[in-house]
Amino acid sequence: MFVREVMVKNQVGLHARPATFFIQKANEFKSSIWIEKEERRVNAKSLLGILSLGIVGGTNVKVIADGADEKAAVDALIELVDSGFSEENR
Q1: Which runs of E-coded beta strand occur in the chain?
Q2: For residue range 48-65, what is the model confidence (pLDDT) as tens digits?
Q3: Annotated catalytic, 67?
Q4: In this predicted structure, what is the pLDDT of residue 87?
Q5: Cβ atoms 1, 62 nearer than 8 A
Q6: Which secondary structure element, helix H or strand E, spans residue 79, and what is its range?
Q7: Angle CA 34–36–40, to nearest 5
Q8: Are 40 and 62 within 8 A, CB to CB?
């Protein structure tokens, strides 16, 4: 299991469009991946799960993965969040 924490920097947080990009990136990996906010953990490959967390800009979240490519998965998702979901990192 591999875990890293990141602050969501873009103003809208993980809503609709950014959440979709996050899920698309998560689905590139075989590992099971979760995103956690304040003790609530959801499947990072589920749009409804991510939206249910209500993640806004400035929120700290943990990205957790378990599987063969867990470190690569977490690192790629952290990079995407750090980029503010910019074009070149999707």
Answers
A1: 2-7, 32-37, 40-43, 60-66
A2: 999 999 999 999 999 999
A3: no
A4: 56
A5: no
A6: helix 70-82
A7: 110
A8: no
H or E element in which residue 19 lies: helix 16-26
Task: Kindly report the CATH number assigned to the domain that includes residue 76.
Answer: 3.30.1340.10
- Total domains in the chain come to 1
Give the range of the structural domain holding residue 58, as residue numbers without chain letter. 2-89
Contact 90, 24 (CB under 8 A): yes
Active-site position among 4, 9, 15, 41: 15
Q: Distance of CA 37 to CAs 41, 44, 54, Å?
A: 7, 12, 9
pLDDT, averaged across the chain: 93
- At residue 68, what is the residue type? A
Tens of pLDDT, residue by residue over 21-33, are: 999 999 999 999 9
CA distances for 74 relative to 20, 57, 66, angstroms: 16, 19, 9
